[in-house]
Amino acid sequence: xxxxILEVADQIAVLKISRPGALNALNSETLDELNxxxxxxxxxxxxxxxxxxxxxxxxxxxxxSFVAGADIAEMVxxxxxxxxxxxxxxxxxxxxxxxxxxxTIAAVNGFALGGGCEIAMACxxxxxxxxxxxxxxxxxxxxxxxxxxxxxxARLVGMGRAxxxxxxxxxxxxxxxxxxxxxxxxxxxxxxxxxxxxxxxxICSKGSYAVTIAKAAINNGxxxxxxxxVEMEANLFGITCSTHDKTEGMSAFLERRxxxxxxx
Length: 264
Fold this sequence. Notes:
There is one protein chain. By secondary structure, the protein is of the alpha/beta class. Helices cover 47% and strands 16% of the residues. The chain has eleven helices and ten strands. The chain has helices spanning 28-42, 72-75, 80-99, 115-122, 149-157, 159-168, 174-179, 192-204, 208-221, 226-240, 244-254; strands at residues 4-9, 12-17, 49-54, 65-67, 103-108, 111-113, 125-129, 133-135, 172-173, 185-187. A six-stranded mixed beta sheet has the order 1-2-3-5-7-10, sandwiched between helices. It has a four-stranded mixed beta sheet with strand order 4-6-8-9. Helix 1 (28-42) packs parallel to helix 3, helix 5 crosses helix 6 (159-168) and helix 9 (208-221) packs antiparallel against helix 10 (226-240). The protein is globular and about 60 Å long. The protein starts with a strand and ends in a 10-residue tail after the last helix.
């Protein structure tokens, strides 16, 4: 990988987007690499949580940029067809982050602009360092968000706030992102990865198959009517009750001991 760094330990993968000369902006090569490595991760039983973050800049500053956006230098001469293809290329790894059986956590350090905000929104959970900056600045460039921003932002923060952010192109800081529900947690810079790792370890300690099924239930039920969504949940609940982890987890609870949950 030219633009990614993958580190795996204790069932947790840390995936860094690393284009230090471009503030980790997403170009076609990076999107292809993301798709490749996420496909690999999805097939690995030794990885239960993925932490996505930005690599350091040329000076080694870890908190300069998460992802500063899509690569404008690549996009400047796009035709309509090329722009559409670029957006669809991004949608493949972004949907992997959203739907893969592993839990995905965006550890957002510094700039999360345009495509950076969009890739963070594709993750299950977002933790921001206190210097993080979020924005969808595309309308100021004569375009619209093309990596899912008009859709995921409205679903996370509501239509009114999404329209305001996209129409004005305003930057918001980490505390405002937390206030409107764009991020789950804000922490000091030097605690960002520690906090993400701590959350990842807690998730790994739970029933991994159950977490995977819960993730699918939330994702698939979100746009259903409530009656069909609850029926889908009941079906999935039944499936989890046929597993080793259900028997072990409930037995451990009744016997007042730690459960040994192994399904994935």
